[in-house]
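Researcher: Structure prediction, please.
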Amino acid sequence: MSKADALGGSATFDAVAQPMSSRAASFAAFAGQTSEPPASPTAAHHETPRVPVDRLAPNPYNPRATLAAIEEMADSLTGKGVIQPLTVVTRDAFLVAHPEHASDLVAADYVVVDGNRRLAGAKLAGLDDLPVHVDDSLADDADTLLETALTAAVQHEDLEPLDEARALQRLVEVHGSQRAVARSLGKSSGWVTQRLALLNLTPELKQAVSQKTMPLDVARTVGQLPEQQQHSAAEQALKQRAAKKRERTKKAEQPASPRTDGAAKAHEAAAKQSARGAADADDELQALAQELRNRLTADQVEKLIELLAA
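Model: Predicted structure follows.
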């Protein structure tokens, strides 16, 4: 079975992906890179070519289930422009690999491999054209195009967690193992395993992940358990997390203990020394008084008191 068969040939991917194989090495360097544009794109000498927005078509195999935050993207593109060119293949190159999409690309000259959200944001913002990096080698065959789209998607950290997990699962089908996917992405096998665990969650817990009411680290841990244990494990983990949070809050609200710096210690030592000195002086006076009482008569003691008081 080819990689394309393993991935499926539907017009929508509910997967996500990132770094890629040597076949698509040029894709990794597309940012800021100029290229010799086809006849259609307009570009000054040594500048990135630009293509009218209405001549660009979104990738039918875009791994994102939904294009989120399009309005925010439109605002960003309006204010700052497009910093990173879109990676595209020509319509002809795309149709060689996927002739079944000819009717979908009647008006397009290029198909976006990476940058579909930027394309949607540009349309919403009313931009006339966009910078592109053209690389038809990414459409050499169906396998390469599909793998490139998945890998590019995983590289974007703003993907929804479940979209990312589905994309990784597709890549496992392409590469044959989680270890191979991890090596392709420059990640550890544990990184891949943790993210794939989200696909094992019960529908209720998946919904919690989508709604961002379940912390991802908890969801990824719970997803490695049998379904019948997941809900109780999730509740226990959330309770423990809440208890730790309360404990941290309690400690933060406690008054700080008095600070004992060098000056305070020195003052305390001096006070102790002074107290010891006063006690020693009292002892000496008591001894002297006792000696005078032994040597003097009562009349002499009274006379001495009068002289001391004068």
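Model: The chain has 14 helices and five strands.
Researcher: Thanks, that helps.
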